[in-house]
Amino acid sequence: MKDDPRLQSILLIKNCNPNQSKVKICIELLIFYIENIIKYQDVEMYREIRLSSQIVKENVLPIKGAIEFLESIGFTKKKLLMEDHEEEFLVLEDSMDDLALLENSINDLKSVKRIELVLDRNVQVLLPSNAEIKMDHQKGAEELENQIVLKIQNMEIEKQNSSNTNYKYCLIRIKFPDYLILQGIFDVNERLSNLLDFIKESLFNENLPFKLKLVDGRTIGYADKNMTLSELNLVPTAFLLFIIDPLYTKKNQKYPYLKTELLLLV
């Protein structure tokens, strides 16, 4: 595929244009052009595409990869005389040489699939500062949590002030009772269930019941699983506390919270 500009251009069309409805129209139009060339091989007008036509300006030129595709199957840019002036066209000089290429191009336009991108969570496990650990020993976990809340309040204020900003991703940090912090990146439209599953899959004991505490004091869990991270105001960043279900006493926690392979990231 590296040396196949035709397939490269098709992938460009299907993967590098955000409006998929316009991509669909463009592909249908490209197929229409090729089908007419095959059907009317001796008719010159079907091998000429006027770049200034409204249809081309609206449905071909704005689509990344469309012109590259036409050039890959033999079209070249030329100026042709139109009455008393010249206009720029894409022209296919000879369609008889490689009809198989044209037919294969139709099949490829129909069959090549859009590549679905998978978000890299960029998982990290972070250590708190020595000062935080010392404070925890001296003043207790509850007071440390209050310090964390105060430290993050400015971030929350800034978040509210920038509520009109359209974020695509958010960075989530989860602090565990053993001080370790699990970090991951999420799409803002992912549901809380995705975050909860991410945490569950990171636990040494995946059956450990837990909830998450937000900096405003609210707790969230599987009861809120259908809400998006954006709706929960976890955008663009959020610091959450991992809270073990009260019914699960501390003495039941015999193992590290996070899996061994994640602890190696520290």
TrEMBL record:
Pfam families in alphabetical order: PUB (PF09409), UBX (PF00789)
SUPFAM superfamilies found in the cross-reference section: PUG domain-like, Ubiquitin-like
InterPro entries referenced in this protein's UniProt entry, alphabetically: PUB-like_dom_sf, PUB_domain, Ubiquitin-like_domsf, UBX_dom
GO CC terms: cytoplasm
Protein origin, superkingdom: Eukaryota
UBX domain boundaries: 165-242
Record's protein name: UBX domain-containing protein 6
